[in-house]
Amino acid sequence: AAAPLIKGCNIHGTQLCQLEVRNHAQPRVEGNQIKESEAMGLFIHSQARGTFIDNDIFDNRDPLAQVLVASGASPVLQKNRIRDGSSGGIQFHGEGTEGWLDGNTIQGHKLAQVEVSSGALPRISRNSVTNGSTVGMYIHDPHTAPKVSHNHIHSHEDTQVIISHGAFPAFDHNLVEAGAGTGLLVTQSGHGIVE
Which chain positions lie within coiled-coil regions (predicted)? Predict the structure, then answer.
């Protein structure tokens, strides 16, 4: 599998995705600015892996999210700043999609800051998820079962966390506070373990 190092770059201003990682690739992507695309900032899919650390990802204008992890990808994303997008922050989508979202700052999005859907199973830990226009974290669909622990989710203009449509997360030791709406909403056959 391809395993390049992408470090200290300024990747900006494209009409399509700024950085796409696919087909079992395993890059190390560190200390880059990924910004100002008309589409996604970062798209990781098709069994790609890799480590993404200390990147600043902002002002990408895809209607879905700034960062999308899908189609069986399983990356490690640590200490990144995912901020100020016109839609969602980061989405994990689809059965077989895993990965680890750890120690990131995710803030300032118009849609859900963190979304997990359609059977994805990531670990989500020690992130600061803050100051969104709508929802902090949205976990939905059958077989969607992320492990969500030790996150600080706060200061959203709508519900802080929604678990719905048959999702079954393990949600433990998270601090959910200071939102304008409901703190934790479980609805429409949402399940899970909340501690």
Answer: none
